[in-house]
Amino acid sequence: MNLTLARLAPELQRALREHAVWADSGGAHGIRAVLDGQDLAGVELSGAYLSGASLVRCNLADAILSGAKLILADLREANLTGADLRRADLSGTVLVGAKLVRAKLAHAVLKRVELRDGQGRATGKVAPTNLRGASLIDADLSFADLSEAAIDPPAAAD
Fold it and tell me: How far apart are CA 112 and CA 131, in angstroms?
C-alpha cells in the first residue's frame, strides 16, 4: 500500500513542508526534517526535496522516491528494501548500513558533493555517497554510476 503525502500524519506533512522551506533557503528559514526511526513504509514521495534530511533507521521499505532529491541526506541503517529510487539524486548521501535489498536504483545519481560554507564558498572538502556496509542484494543498479561512491571492497575469495 502506498501512502501519499496527503495521507501522512499531519505532523509528518508539516515536517516535510518545513524541510522544503529550510532546504530552499539554505537553512535560513523553515526546519530541517529529522525523521529518524519513522515508519514511512510504502510512502509515495516521488520528486520530493529531502536534501539534508535526517532519516536514520527510517523504515522506507517499498517507498516510492523516484526522482527525489536526497543530496547529503542521512539514511544510515535505513530500511529501503524494495524502494523505488530510480533517477533519485543520492549525491553525498550517507547510506552506511542501509538495507537496499531489491531497491530500484536505475539511473540514480550517486556522485560526490563539493561542500560549501555558509556563504556558499567551496571548502575544498567533498562528501561521497557512502554505501559502506549497505546491503545491495538484488538491487537494480542499471546505469547508476558508483565510480565516486564510497563502498566496501569486494570480499576476498576463499
Answer: 12
pLDDT of residue 5: 62
Residue 32 has pLDDT above 50, yes or no: yes
Task: Give the rounded distance of the alpha carbon of 121 from its chain centre.
Answer: 24
Name, in order, each residue with C-beta under 8 angstroms of 146's C-beta and a sequence gap of 6 or more.
Answer: 110, 131
- State which H helix or E strand residue 11 sits in: helix 10-24
Any idea where the domains of the chain sit in the sequence?
A: 36-151
Query: Given a cut of 50, is residue 62 above it in pLDDT?
Result: yes
Can you give the pTM of this predicted structure? 0.89
Taking the CB of residue 98, how many other CB atoms lie within 10 A of it?
Answer: 29
Which residue is it, cell 526535496? 49
Cα separation of 138 and 105, whole Å?
A: 11
Q: What is the dihedral of CA 16, 113, 24, 15, to 10 degrees?
A: 10
Q: Give the CATH number of domain 36-151.
A: 2.160.20
